[in-house]
Amino acid sequence: MNNYIFATIYLTLLTIEFITLYTLTLLNINSVLKNRDNIPDIFKSIISPQKYEKSIAYTLKKEHFSIFRLVFSLILTVTILFSGILGGIESILMGLTSNKIILGLLFLGVVSLILGLFDLPLSLYSTFVIEEEFGFNKLTIKAYIGDMIKQIVLSLVLGIIILTTLFIFMDKTADLWWLWASIFFISFQLLLLVIYPNFIAPIFNKFSPLEDGELKIALEEMAVKANFKINGIYVMDGSKRSGHSNAYFTGIGSSKRIVLYDTLIENLSTEELCGVLAHEIGHWSKGHIKKRLILTFISVPLSFFILSLALNFKPLYTTFNMVEGTYHGLLVLMMLISSSFTFFFSPLSNLLSRKHEFEADSFAKNLRGESDSLIQALLKLSKDNLSNLTPDKNYSAFHYSHPPVIERVKNLKDLVE
Ligand SMILES: [Zn+2]
Fold this sequence. Notes:
transmembrane; metal-binding; single chain; binds zinc ion; globular; 4 strands; 73% helix; 417 residues; Zincin-like; transmembrane helix; mainly alpha
């Protein structure tokens, strides 16, 4: 295959990706506008016409911005790839060092820095204009910069550990490097599952054990009923960043815990919080965590195997004016172009996670012998987060890891009858 053929294949896929995402966003905007005058029945009791109008304005603003983002990132990607910038940076760095590991770290660092700088204004706009306008942003510029510094330091530490190990495997284990890299990568991910709740998440938020009282008793009683060994229910100070609320399940083994945002506790009743917790227990009880891990055990080696084939694929480098077969070149190019080859799979992985959400909902209903508390919690969460209540079906199939609330409520109600 020569450079022209490879460039044509890549640009075709990139165009398909762009058109697909662009069309989906337009469909979503259309679906929102079409339903503008009618609040869906299930939300009528909980959402006022003013609030509904506000949720529409919020969705539209975000979708219009995402179109801008799409166009911006298309132009940026094509410019970086075809302008020869990558080759230029590469030759400067190769003049500085011939050590493959240092070269790899520097090259990935410089490219990530460039991409990060271009993304910064977009992220600022999203936080301080859109989220601010709708009352969600609670961050000051100073706190935002503080977060950014923490994130950079954390990415540097994790990035250096992961990349150095990866480069050593690529260098020392010949054709089987993909296998060694996979074993390392999976082990590292398992380790992160253990250290994330205890060491990484607390860098950004404060986690306090849920205070004794009616809520704690109710939640613990339910955990016992579900035969769920709870290692802790924690409250996270999510309100210091954003008015959005959520709950999640984190860790494995003895680091396993349930995290509730303080905003969630403020807005939901004890019964509703029990509904939410029952859903989270459902993920554990139905083995979703294990299933996702098994999927990682399959997808990581597969991805590294494909990478190992790509390492010696000449046009990948020469098309973009880079030295062929280098480790740093492989990783940076994959970072830039792989989404065009893999974005077709995202509906598939969302399909699985939506199936799990329905299962966890059904579990919660069976455990509690009623579904009203969870339904009320879902409706309230939609209202408070100004969620899009009428997303386009294709859009949600492609982008949503959770089913639209309207479908979850229907599912919960169907089960009742
Ligand atoms: Zn869930």
